[in-house]
Every structure is written in structure tokens, then in C-alpha cells.
Design a protein that fits this description.
168 residues, mainly alpha, two-stranded antiparallel sheet, 5 helices, 2 strands, 39% helix
Length: 168
């Protein structure tokens, strides 16, 4: 099989003297016909021009194990609010720094059992996204904290927490 890449002739004079360039001295370039010969591999099969099986092609979308198109989860405001409520409750208003994720996931799945494919890590990623991108206002987050505080602590502690944070 032969493929013709290009055919051109060009004379360049580095010194700007004229069109009679000397191609052997390096002062000019002359390009003539270039031919590439490609020999097929001995065991060509049908794999030569096929893409790898594990690479997504063009607009192909990711699929589930069942072969269905993967759907992105759209997190509603209600779901985001519940994520933060679960986070504040499981971390006891952010006083526990580790070991609360499994409890947070259990709480989340109690309200949204149909989202059983959500993992602890995904839930924490969503919590980070909520706070980073301010998907819930500061005032709403403060109200969620107060509600969680009411469920976690006795009434006297709740009054101190609420008064302390409202004065900020």
C-alpha cells in the first residue's frame, strides 16, 4: 500500500541572494515527492483500525452494569438541606471530626431509601459542594444548626447556643 504525503518544491536562499539555492550546502530546501510504504502486520486480524474496547467514543455515554445509560443525580434543595442536617447531627454540630460518615449515610437513606447507590464519600462530596458553592444560604445553614441543636442538647444548652450564634 502506498500513500503520497505531499509533492512540493521550494527554494529558499538564506542570504536572500536569489532563487538558485544550493540544497547540499544547507542554504536552501528542496522538497520533492515523499512516498510512505506501509506493510501490514503479519497477524492483522480485525483489530488494526478498531478503537480500544474500554475507551468511550464520541458521544457514547457511560452505562450501568445493566447496560442502561447512567443518569446523573440532580440534588434538590430539599435533599441538600437534608444532607446538611444529617452532617450536623452525625458530627454533633461539627464536634466529631471522624467516624460519623456511616451514621450520616444511614440518616440520609432513612429519608431517601431509593438512593441506595449513594456512598458515604459521595455524601461528603455533596456536603463539600453545598458549602463551597453556597447552594444553601448562611442563614438557612444557621437555622439547620439550631434545629439540630434542639434535638441533640437539653433546652438550657440550646438557648445558650442560639443566643451566642445570633449575636454574631
Amino acid at each position: 500500500m502506498e500513500t503520497q504525503i505531499g509533492k512540493a518544491s521550494e527554494n529558499n536562499d538564506v542570504n536572500g541572494g536569489g532563487s538558485n539555492a544550493d540544497t547540499t550546502s544547507g542554504r536552501g530546501i528542496e522538497v520533492s515527492q515523499v512516498v510512505i510504504k506501509r506493510n501490514p502486520p503479519k497477524d492483522s486480524g480485525n483489530l488494526i483500525n478498531q478503537p480500544a474496547m474500554d475507551v468511550l467514543q464520541g458521544n457514547d455515554r457511560a452505562t450501568t452494569k445493566a447496560g442502561l445509560p447512567r443518569q446523573r443525580l440532580n440534588w434538590s434543595d430539599e435533599m441538600n438541606t437534608h444532607v446538611m442536617r444529617c452532617y450536623y447531627t452525625a458530627s454533633k454540630l461539627e464536634t466529631i471530626k471522624s467516624g460519623f460518615r456511616s451514621h450520616m449515610l444511614k440518616m440520609f437513606l432513612e429519608k431517601y431509601p431509593h438512593l441506595n447507590n449513594v456512598t458515604e464519600q459521595r455524601l461528603m462530596d455533596q456536603k463539600r459542594s453545598i458549602t463551597t458553592h453556597k447552594r444553601i444560604t448562611e442563614r438557612s445553614l444557621q437555622l439547620i444548626k439550631e434545629q439540630v441543636c434542639n434535638t441533640l442538647k437539653p433546652e438550657s444548652t440550646t438557648r445558650r447556643y442560639t443566643a451566642r450564634n445570633r449575636s454574631r
